[in-house]
Amino acid sequence: MNRKHIIFVFAVCIAAGACGQKTMLEPAADASLPQTPYGSTVQPEADDLLEPDTLAQPERSIELRTRSEEREDDPFDLPPE
């Protein structure tokens, strides 16, 4: 390939990467947001609906061991029959 082809391919890649548009999410023109949840008085916005609730993304509790400890006896650790 000559230099002009390389520059052309590079320019096309830059243009393709720049065509992404970042705007606020809105429902389509003929659609609306889902119904108000039962018991709620406020209709959630589109951004509120995108946030996962606690059950969908629970907090992680990572308990690191800081020293070696003896294992407790496991009554289910039986030899194969």
Question: What characteristics describe this protein?
Answer:
81 residues; mainly alpha; flat
Mean pLDDT: 79
Counting DSSP H or I runs of 4 or more residues, the number of helices is 2
The radius of gyration computed from the alpha-carbon positions, rounded to a whole number of angstroms, is 28 Å
Could you give the distance between the termini?
69 Å
Helix content range = 25-40%
Q: What would you call the structural class?
A: mainly alpha
- Taken from the alpha-carbon principal axes, the silhouette is flat
- How much of the sequence lies in strands comes to under 5%
Q: Can you tell me the residue ranges where pLDDT is under 50 for at least 5 consecutive residues?
A: none
Secondary-structure element series: HH
- Biggest sheet, open or closed, and with what strands and sense? none
Total strand count, please?
Answer: 0
Detailed description of the structure:
This protein is mostly helical and 81 residues long. Helices cover 26% and strands 0% of the residues. The protein is built from two helices and no strands. It has helices spanning 3-18, 46-50. The protein is flat. The mean pLDDT is 79.
Would you kindly provide a brief summary of this structure?
By secondary structure, the chain is an all-alpha fold.
Helix-strand blueprint:
Elements: H1 3-18, H2 46-50
